[in-house]
Specification:
Helices cover about 70% and strands about 5% of the residues. The protein is of the alpha/beta class. It has a four-stranded mixed beta sheet. The relative contact order is 0.10. The mean pLDDT is about 85.
Length: about 375
Amino acid sequence: MSQSPSLQVEPGRVVLSGCWTLAEMLPQMSTLQVDLAACSSSIEDWDLSAVRRLDSAAAVLLWRTWGAKWPAGLVAGELHRQVLERVAELPREIPEQARPRVRLPEWVGALLFKALGNLRGMIALFGQLLLDVAYLFRHPQDVPWKEITANVYKAGAQALAVTALVGFLIGVTISYLSALQLKSFGADLFIVNILGISIIRELGPVLVAVLVAGRSGSAMTAQIGVMRVTEEIDVLSTMGISRSIRVVLPKIFGLTVAMPLLVLWTSAVALFGGMLAALLQLDLSLVYFLDNLPRAVPVSNLVIGLCKGVVFGFVIAVVACHFGLHVKPNTESLSANTTSAVVTAITTVILFDAIFAVFTRNIGVP
């Protein structure tokens, strides 16, 4: 017996038969709609006694054909009639739900609680890191040297090119703009002081931190997030392997070690770019620049810059690992947490840079 839905027009009535379900109707949907539309205005009696199955999609199609009202004569089984009655009770138009009004205090409060939640999570991660370090002191054979060196290579060696290029361009730009101003006041020689202090103490660490947060920080969050999505983190726990020692600790240690080296490298390249620009703009030789740089910039500025590199690298890695561990098993959460990690890392780096400026204001400048 055929399962396809069909209708037969007889004198004064329409007889439906077959299975009136969405799966059966789809192959001939257009034909059914045309035939039903032709019957809708002229015939008031409908016979559904030969219908084997009737689902909600077919009931909606018939109800629309009848103009959202019951026909004068309807013959249907009790089960099919119940399906039609459920469709008839549905509202013709779904009222639009009122959007909750967002108030500024509520928005600020939600943002504050979210920030406090993230801060608590990072503090907990830091505490777990201290426990892992204490464990590794007692069990040095468990130190993940391969993972740490791999992260130093990824976060440090592979970032040398991009940091050098950006540092060189920043050095040229600062030197060129400063030379124009100093030349008008006859203070050309102070270009050494401006370039040395600004790059070694401030711009070098911050510039590298922003680049590393966007490059290595996002990569760490995405890598841990993918491990969460593919349940590799859960597999490590099932096998009795500490995820913090094998996954989190190598990333934090690796970036903390690589960051000051990147700061030193980028500052040197930026100074070289500034020296070339000073040579072209002010005719200051490279030898003069190198001879006067140690007198213009005390070594304490270099120490402050390297300390900033250590702190910035640690902060970026902790933030990246925290957001990576909070990725939920879907791609939307992965992208949202990666973006949040980069934004939070850069903001935190700027905050720590301000703290450095306050507590070292009397150090490093003669």
